[in-house]
Fold:
Amino acid sequence: MAISQRNKISINFSSVGMTDVVFNLLIFFMLTSTLVHPNALKLLLPKGSNITSAKPLTTVSITSDLNYFVEMQPVNIDDLESILKQKLGDKPDTYISLHADKSVPFESVVKVLNIAQSNNYKLIIATSPK
Structure:
């Protein structure tokens, strides 16, 4: 009486499971990379714990050497108000995100605050998490 094995081990390699994993990782990284908005300006933001749900229409950045940027475009402080008016217009409830390095003097931040207040823009001051 010959005893035969019912379950034979296959020598062939099936890569179907590995293909599914790689495809899912590809989709995951493609989706997360589109959600990240890298800020090319290297700023050391002050620490804060408040979170806002408002979506700013543009960003104003002040670097440690007192250079002003609207999004990634360098601007002069004297031209900042006209550039913001041109970019944003007179839309109600317009939010601007202010990214100021923590070494920037408060006087420079107040200049941007005054421009925002005179044009009825709402300002969000960006901070890094504690």
The two ends are 76 Å apart (CA to CA). The CA atoms of residues 20 and 26 lie 10 Å apart. The mean pLDDT is 83.
